[in-house]
């Protein structure tokens, strides 16, 4: 997406990229990523596929407007020993639960970027 939105001037600052290469790159990027406006109806249709998965805590789900949204990146941060990892592990299980149980009926990939596990 960044190649599509970048200005020609910014892309020309990259060593070894000519005008012709920029046009080819942007053309290819536009084919991969649809760019433009969408109507409210289209956006509402797209949003209808989003699930809200329970965190396991009714109060936290209430604060989040019904749980954690699928098809999104949710950042969890806080002080040491405040339950961030526990929440993530709970969400890994919840995401695999059936939708009738508040889950996402899906699969999970857990990536630990700090190598603490």
Radius of gyration: 20 Å
Number of strands: 2
Straight-line distance between termini: 33 Å
- The number of helices is 6
Low-confidence runs (pLDDT<50, min 5 residues)?
none
As a percent range, the share of helical residues equals 40-55%
- What share of the residues does DSSP label as strand, in percent? under 5%
Main sheet: strands, sense, barrel? 2 strands, antiparallel
Shape: extended
Strand order of the largest sheet: 1-2
Layout of strands and helices, then pairs:
Layout: H1 2-5, H2 8-12, H3 19-32, H4 40-47, E1 52-53, H5 58-63, E2 68-69, H6 84-96
Antiparallel strand pairs: 1-2
Structural account:
The protein has 117 residues and is mostly helical. 43% of the residues lie in helices and 3% in strands. The chain has 6 helices and 2 strands. Strands 1-2 form a two-stranded antiparallel sheet. The protein is extended. The two termini are 33 Å apart.
